[in-house]
Write a structure and sequence with these properties.
227 residues; mainly beta; eight-stranded antiparallel sheet; 2% helix
Length: 227
């Protein structure tokens, strides 16, 4: 059975944020719950320190969102993902989310199609969007292994990253602020090691680092080893 090893978080903050007041929000679910997050739809649980979505709900865009952050504007949102099948529609993440409507930008991965796509969403239903804003070829990790998905929003620019490499980039001004969420559909999927950085992001308890610089830098792998 694969097990994550999480090192000292302060040693892993090898990234830059948008201003001297930028801070980091971190959640690794090792406390066994997802306090601070709210279920929009679907079945969500924490198993062995990993957030799990139970697929098969039939809800396109079933999501778990962070309750704060409604006024966040420019930030990076990164999370580790682990797939249990090679089927399409395991989901992805949203940024600048309005929980009242579901309006947001979201990045989804498609293991069968070996593609990654970014959408401009007008609602929680993942079919209620303005079409594929951009699509690129993408190589999924092996089943049971982890990969990192990240979205960066800075002004009109929306970027999608995978394992430290920028894959997609669009410019749009539909959504200027909002929180974050995991978004899913048909497949069982695991998420872990959430990291958000940017102006106005609250300092995580015990975190003393306040880096300076610019967004869209590469963060170190959080899941450093397995056994």
């Amino acid at each position: 059975m694969m097990k994550k090893t999480v090192g000292m978080i302060s040693a892993l903050l090898l990234f830059c944020a948008a201003a001297p007041s930028s801070r980091a929000l971190i959640d690794d679910f090792d406390d066994g719950n997802f306090d601070g997050w709210k279920v929009q739809s679907g079945i969500w649980k924490v198993k062995n320190g990993e957030l799990n979505y139970k697929g098969g709900s039939g809800i396109c865009g079933a999501s778990l969102y962070y309750e704060e952050g409604l006024e966040w504007t420019d930030y990076e949102f990164e999370v580790d993902m682990k797939f249990t099948t090679r089927n399409d529609w395991p989901g992805g993440i949203r940024v600048r989310l309005n929980p009242d409507t579901g309006g947001s930008y979201f990045t989804w991965v498609y293991p069968t199609q070996t593609a990654i796509m970014v959408y401009i969403a007008d609602a929680w239903d993942c079919n209620n969007n303005r079409g594929i804003a951009q699509r690129r070829a993408w190589e999924p990790p092996e089943l049971g292994e982890w990969g990192q998905l990240k979205m960066v929003v800075e002004g009109r620019e929306i970027q999608s990253w995978w394992n430290g490499e920028e894959i997609l980039s669009i410019k749009d001004k539909a959504w200027e602020r909002g929180t974050i969420s995991f978004t899913t559909f048909t497949e069982d999927v695991f998420f872990d090691n959430v990291r958000v950085a940017g102006p106005g992001i609250p300092l995580d308890p015990g975190e003393a680092v306040e880096p300076e610089g610019k967004l869209t830098t590469t963060w170190g792998k959080l899941k450093s080893s397995y056994s």
